[in-house]
Amino acid sequence: MTPVAHYCTIIPPYVLDRLAEQGHEPAQRSLALDLAHRTARLQAVAPPAPAHHLTRTIGDAGHAEQAPGRAVRREGQAAVADGSVNRAYDGLGSTFTLYETVYSRNSIDGDWLPLDATVHYGQDYDNAFWDGSEMVFGDGDNVIFTDFTAAVDVIGHELTHGVTQYTAGLDYQDQPGALNESVSDVFGSLVKQYALGQSAAQADWLIGSGLLAPGIQGVALRSLKAPGTAYDDPQLGKDPQPAHLNDYVDTPEDQGGVHINSGIPNHAFYLLATALGGHAWERAGQIWYDTLTGGRLTHDADFAAFAKATVAAAAARYQDRSVADAVTAAWSQVGISTT
Q1: Is-contact 158 142, C-beta < 8 A?
Q2: What's the pTM value of the predicted model, to 2 decimals?
Q3: At the N or C end, where does the chain have fewer CB atoms within 10 A?
């Protein structure tokens, strides 16, 4: 069965909507591109025969609205003069390394799927996305957002949408969609933490740190540690993410608030990882990975179903009951029962 692919962007539509309403032309163009991508039917492309090793190809769109772009760096080739190309290449590698080394997963699909990316997409394109088969990066407008290859956690986030596509296949709507986004934030953060060798206590728990242009009042796109605090800017508005189920946002926008309500399961993971201590990709990350890949989830799983599945995954992997109890406690702190 062909896995269900979703068009998944790192910048939520409500952010670009706000900028577009203020007359920001790059945001207006980016919204139009995103809408065209989102309404197009994603075509399943038969992948080439697996090479049984990491295989990366970076293309350059040359600011055209076409992907894949002209191949400018392939696996094993030396760095080039273009920093965006090199950052994309390294970010794909960092994501592959986390999944292979820590979770014994052979690329995004588990079967050595080549990792492809296109940089310099569109004119001042204010986004990056996973289209079901590759990553695509805009350069940003350098007024609100900078080059989207600048944040390795964004690369890990988008590629994890591919992992979800090939495993649990979570719907991209309402609570399943918020879980889809949250899983990508979790593993995007873990990609960065693993690359930097950080413990849970040392990590910044931010997604997209460095993407906001100078003068924008904020530190990142989202915060797992403190949802709702990543930015508060006259142009961007205030980060709308809740950290507790009591503040869940019912909205028809953003596929039912998938980028907003993801703050709730994001915060649960942060609470678990810091409670367990050490490296977050170890016990906390392993539990989330087991949940995503272990067949415990249906495609329409809501927060409660996902929470219960994480407790079951923890109990199955760790004989120490305190680990599963810590999972239960983390979900309870964000208002979600696991019983």
Answers
A1: no
A2: 0.92
A3: N
* Residues 177, 164 contacting (CB under 8 angstroms): no
Identity of residue 209: S
- Given 158, 181, 267, 279, which residue is catalytic? 158
**How do the domains of the chain map onto residue ranges?**
8-166, 174-333
CA distance 125 to 147: 9
pLDDT tens digits for 292-329?
999 999 999 999 999 999 999 999 999 999 999 999 99
Cα 126 to Cα 30: distance, rounded to the nearest angstrom: 6
Closest CA to 195 of 119, 284, 292, 101: 101
**279 tagged catalytic:** no
Could you confirm whether 158 is annotated as catalytic?
A: yes
Write the CB contacts of 168 (distance below 8 Å, at least 6 apart in sequence).
292, 293, 297, 299, 301
Q: Which of 6, 157, 259, 279 is catalytic?
A: 259
The domains spanning 8-166 and 174-333 adopt the same CATH topology:
no
Q: Under a CB-based contact definition with an 8 Å cutoff, are residues 316 and 226 in contact?
A: no
Answer yes or no: are the C-beta atoms of 156 and 34 closer than 8 Å.
no
User: For residues 230 and 218, is the Cβ–Cβ distance under 8 A?
Assistant: yes
Q: What is the pLDDT of residues 139-153, one digit of tens each?
A: 999 999 999 999 999
CATH of the domain spanning 8-166: 3.10.170.10
Mean pLDDT within 5-34 = 81
Q: What one-character DSSP code corresponds to residue 166?
A: H
Which CATH number describes the domain made up of 174-333? 1.10.390.10
